[in-house]
Amino acid sequence: ISALNTALVRVVKNSNTLGIAIEGGANTRQPLPRIVTIQKGGSAHNCGQLKVGQVILEVNGISLRGQEHEEAARIIAEAFKTKEKDHIDFLVAELG
Amino acid sequence: SPPKDYEDEVTFF
């Protein structure tokens, strides 16, 4: 994953769900969480910049590298739930 | 450690 094809995407929490599904994590075939579903009406779909197939490298600056699926999912869930921010910053990579 | 068996674990948010 080169820096050339990474993007920082800000997802504003404008819906009561984030509306994505991820698979993978450390110790699996997919070592970094990959977006497998984007649900209509969710904040991610409204943001329009996240796409199925992208890999999530960081959430609000927290790296997901080396995180197992459960821990990566907890970090994303916390980021959406916290009232400290009205958005989530995802650093994503498009795999060529 | 060998890959665990949660290969296809998917979490929805």
Verbal overview:
- The complex is a heterodimer of chains A (96) and B (13).
- Chain A has 96 residues and is α+β, with helices and mostly antiparallel strands.
- Chain A contains two helices and six strands, in the order βββαββαβ.
- Chain A has helices at 43-47, 69-81, and strands at residues 6-12, 20-23, 34-38, 55-59, 62-63, 87-93.
- In chain A, strand 4 (55-59) and strand 5 form a beta hairpin.
- The N and C termini of chain A lie close together (9 Å).
- With 13 residues, chain B is mainly beta.
- Chain B has one strand at residues 10-12.
- The N and C termini of chain B lie far apart (28 Å).
- The relative contact order of chain B is 0.25.
Highlighted features:
heterodimer; A: alpha+beta; 4-stranded antiparallel sheet; 31% strand; globular; B: 13 residues; mainly beta
Compact overview of the structure:
The complex is a heterodimer of chains A (96) and B (13). With 96 residues, chain A is an alpha+beta fold.
Show the largest interface. Answer: A-B, 21 and 11 residues
Q: Specify the biggest β-sheet of chain A.
A: 4 strands, antiparallel
Strand content of chain A: 25-35%
Question: Sheet with the most strands of chain B?
Answer: none
Radius of gyration of chain B: 9 Å
Regions of chain A with pLDDT < 50 over 5+ consecutive residues? Answer: none
Q: Give the structural class of chain B.
A: mainly beta
Mean pLDDT of chain B: 74
How far the N terminus sits from the C terminus of chain A, by CA atoms, comes to 9 Å
What's the number of helices of chain A? 2
What is the strand tally of chain B? 1
**In percent terms, what proportion of residues of chain B is strand?**
15-25%
Helix count of chain B?
0
Give me the oligomer status. heterodimer
Cα(first) to Cα(last) distance of chain B is 28 Å
Give the SSE order of chain B as H and E letters. E
Mean pLDDT of chain A: 95
